[in-house]
Amino acid sequence: MNEDAFRPEARNPRGFADKRARDLRAERRIVGAVSQVYERYGFEALDTGAFEYADALGKFLPDADRPNEGVFALQDDDEQWIALRYDLTAPLARFAAQHWETLPKPFRRYAFGPVWRNEKPGPGRYREFVQCDADTVGSDRPEADAEMIAMAAEGLEAAGLPRGAYVVKINNRKLLNGLLSAAGVSDTGQKLGVLRAVDKLDRLGADGVRLLLGEGRKDESGAFTKGAGLNAKAAESVLAFVQAGAASRSATLDKLAGVVGGSAEGDEGLAELAAIGAALTSLGVAEDQAVFEPSIVRGLEYYTGAVFEAELLLEPTDEKGHPVKFGSIGGGGRYDDLVARFTGQRTPATGFSFGVSRLAAALRAAGREGDSEARGPVVVIAFDQAHMGEYFAAASELRAQGIAAEVYLGGSGMRAQMKYADRRLSPAAVILGGDELAAGTVTVKDLDLGRALASGVTDNSEWREQRPGQINVPRGELVATIRAILDAAP
Ligand code: AMP
Predict the structure, then answer these.
(1) Relative orientation angle of helices 232-242 and 249-260, to the nearest 10 degrees
(2) Which of 113, 170, 197, 476 has its CA 20 to 30 A from that of 233?
(3) Ligand 1 in contact with 179 (CB < 6 A)?
């Protein structure tokens, strides 16, 4: 090897995670469970490419303040800009517009896969992460929204979160819009300022939000954030609105009617929420699974009506006992203008997106990951190059019966091979030494037992009687012997 060769430091870019078997298993389990829920509701699978033309993704990016507007983009050899998809909704809108004539309508599809966002990474905030979405394109019925909420709740439970560990919060953009129009606020920038202020209710409380709705707020460090510039009366009605959450969906509706009723858009929003509530009840979605929560904003600007956000209610703690905040584990809403960008025709649509990576992390932190330890393969010990054929035959026999098996292919001796098998969490090692081959037998070492004893999971003497650590059986009984160890797994 050339001593002077350039040696890059082995490192991965921030926000791009390496996922090992355990992480992948957790993610696949979630995607599988959620996909099944989507399919049960009649959604068909669709996959589109990772890249879209940048103009197809549009300006609905999560963090529009950054220079290249939140996406990873590059210029193709035909000079056109293409960008990695930042969610699964924008590609769906493009697909639906492209194939609208021939699609069954409403078009109901689900999709999963990685999405990429060129934003500042942080804890639980990746630049590449997996989403799993369902959307209905071509229905303006509130029942289509209710179905999204029902699938969100069912999907979370299918993924492993028990009832009470999560809640889906529901709001409608039209409520606040109606309220602001009634208060004479029509400037889009000012409306966005209001949304941004409302979004901080959790963190800053009512007093902090009041300042941000008005002139602005100085934080602890002395930095000043300019406010939305509402007058005191308008600010108070916005505050009353965001604090209108009550014990039940119908009680919240009543309170909301008192605050936003009267404006045309507000009344429309109220009627939609009421219809969603009625459908949720018919779908069997309980009050503790889905609530109306007027302070929910949702980041993306493309939502036009109902919005949903799934939150974890558990307060998991890290190794040091500090509470871990996960943010939202899923979200969605109604976006009636996204397909119209292409076709010019208003096409009502609604959808929900699970943040699979975040949900996996949340389940792990909550101790709800399920079988977290991967079961490794049976390892056939390799003693002698001359007998590789016998080792491979044993591995093939096990594989043919659906048992994961491999022949050790490293260069180390017996002890190291046993250590390897143990690190792989193998249930057993298969020993075909000279004696075994001569006698037509095989020795099977029960590694599950060794691990159980080492971890103190089991009473030593009882197990020793029932399970010898190592047995020698006729070669023809290999599969049955391994099977017995697998079946007895603790
Ligand atoms: P959004 O597409 O922004 O509506 O997000 C939908 C879901 O994706 C959120 O509820 C999160 O669970 C997840 N999510 C959004 N941004 C990130 C990120 N940067 N890293 C990991 N998960 C994310």
Answers:
(1) 170
(2) 170
(3) no
The DSSP output letter for 102 is G
pLDDT band for position 460 (cuts 50, 70, 90): low
Spatial separation of the C-alpha atoms in residues 124 and 327, rounded to whole Å: 8
Any atom of ligand 1 within 6 Å of the Cβ of 131? yes
Q: Which of 204-208, 337-341, 359-363, 470-474 has the lowest mean pLDDT?
A: 359-363
Region of residue 120 (left: phi > 0; alpha: psi -120 to 50; beta: else): beta
* pLDDT confidence of residue 63: 46
Q: Which residue's alpha carbon is at the smallest distance from atom 8 of ligand 1?
A: 355
| Low-confidence winner among 31-45, 212-226, 363-377, 464-478 (lowest mean pLDDT) | 363-377
Strands 128-137 and 349-355: antiparallel
Q: Check if 300 has its Cβ closer than 6 Å to any atom of ligand 1.
A: yes
Q: What is the pTM of this model?
A: 0.89
Q: Tell me the C-alpha distance between 227 and 217, whole Å.
A: 7
Q: How far apart are CA 488 and CA 490, in angstroms?
A: 6
Q: Whose CA is nearest to atom 11 of ligand 1?
A: 355
* pLDDT for position 373: 66
- Residues facing residue 116 across a β-bridge: 128
Residue 439: what residue type? Answer: A
Per the CB < 8 A criterion, the answer to whether 353 and 129 are in contact is no
124 CA to middle of ligand 1, Å?
9
Q: In the predicted model, is pLDDT for residue 481 greater than 90?
A: yes
**HSE (CB half, 13 Å, CA atoms) of 27?**
19
Burial class (CB in 10 A: 0-12, 13-18, 19+), 40: exposed
Of 72, 311, 353, 357, the residue with max ligand 1 atoms within 8 A of its CB, to mutate for a pocket test, comes to: 353
CA of 238 to the centre of ligand 1 (A): 27
Residue 226 near residue 216 (C-beta atoms within 8 A): yes
